[in-house]
Amino acid sequence: MQEVIDRNYVKSALTKRNPDDDKFAVGSLLSICGSYGMAGAGIMSAKAALRSGVGLLRMIIPESIYPIMASSIYEAVFCPVKEDTQPNNISFIEKLNYNNAVVMGSGLSVSPYSKALVKTVLEKAEIPIVLDADGLNIVAENKDLLKSVKAPLVITPHIGEMSRLTGMTIDEINKDRAAVTLNFARDNNCIVVLKGHITVVASPDGKLMYNKNTGNPGMATGGSGDVLAGIIGSLIAQGSEPYKGAMAGVYIHGLAGDIAAQKLSQRSMLPTDMIEYIPLAFKKIESL
């Protein structure tokens, strides 16, 4: 089944707020993103998650980047750890499943610490996981990790990451992006968001949707994918079903990019600009 994502689909995927909701009622998201030299990726993912409405953001980060993270993100609760710490000794990992979702991988690096952390979360999580960037690169080195996942899993590869995950060339994937995405989703029991000019979202049970209605070439810049991962993780933590959350996140991400391009031009817009326009994207959708 192939359909195009539109505003009505997206609006139906978003959870509603109740007058008596508190921060726990509207979702807790655990972010495992960022590393020395790549703090910006973690910051963009976190800010996108917060702008997308999650009630509480917890972050596991290396001690080395704590000063820049804490001075950039005021709303998060941080767990700074030494990079030789075993994952089972991290307090936030002990309480992993107290959260509603986890987003992991943006700027994480592929260090031994990161590999151990990804392995532990994939094995232990009982909550939905959004896996991006270096999280995907770690899995590409050890595809058996996907077999250990018991929780709903959303992966958000760009074409290069999809090539590493599948072992196919970029040209082979581009010949039939939909089929490759759907087959990987079915074979690995995960939701796949293959990013690109027309992003494809596929589920293990055969659902397939395209995003042709939002997005533009100005979004083709480092950091855009980190923003998307944060949005999807936030929506799922708030209660959206993972496939619907992924679908809605793709559309909202593109719409925020379109607003940024309209106001700033495709050439000059940045992923950080897109984060600032996420609220306007939500206003457009919610005004239907």
From the structure above, extract its key features.
globular, alpha/beta, 288 residues, UDP-N-acetylmuramoyl-L-alanine:D-glutamate ligase, 12 helices, single chain, ten-stranded mixed beta sheet, 10 strands
- CATH classification, class level: Alpha Beta
Sequence of secondary-structure elements: EHEHEHEHEHEHEHHHEEEHHH
Any idea how many domains? 1
Proper CATH architecture: 3-Layer(aba) Sandwich
Structure description:
There is one protein chain. It contains 12 helices and 10 strands. Helices cover 45% and strands 15% of the residues. The model has no long low-confidence stretch (mean pLDDT 96). Helix 1 (7-13) packs across helix 11, helix 2 packs parallel to helix 12 and helix 11 packs across helix 12. The chain has a single domain (2-13, 23-286), classed as Ribokinase (UDP-N-acetylmuramoyl-L-alanine:D-glutamate ligase, 3-Layer(aba) Sandwich), CATH 3.40.1190. The chain has helices at residues 7-13, 39-51, 66-72, 91-94, 112-124, 134-141, 159-166, 170-175, 177-188, 224-237, 242-264, 271-286; strands at residues 2-4, 28-32, 56-62, 77-81, 101-104, 129-131, 153-155, 191-194, 199-202, 208-211. By secondary structure, it is of the alpha/beta class. The protein has a 10-stranded mixed sheet, with helices on both faces. Helix 6 links the parallel strand 6 and strand 7 (153-155). 51% of the residues are buried.
Indicate the topology.
Layout: E1 2-4, H1 7-13, E2 28-32, H2 39-51, E3 56-62, H3 66-72, E4 77-81, H4 91-94, E5 101-104, H5 112-124, E6 129-131, H6 134-141, E7 153-155, H7 159-166, H8 170-175, H9 177-188, E8 191-194, E9 199-202, E10 208-211, H10 224-237, H11 242-264, H12 271-286
Parallel strand pairs: 1-10, 2-3, 2-5, 3-4, 5-6, 6-7, 7-8
Antiparallel strand pairs: 8-9, 9-10
Helix pairs in contact: 1-11, 2-10, 2-12, 6-7, 10-11, 11-12
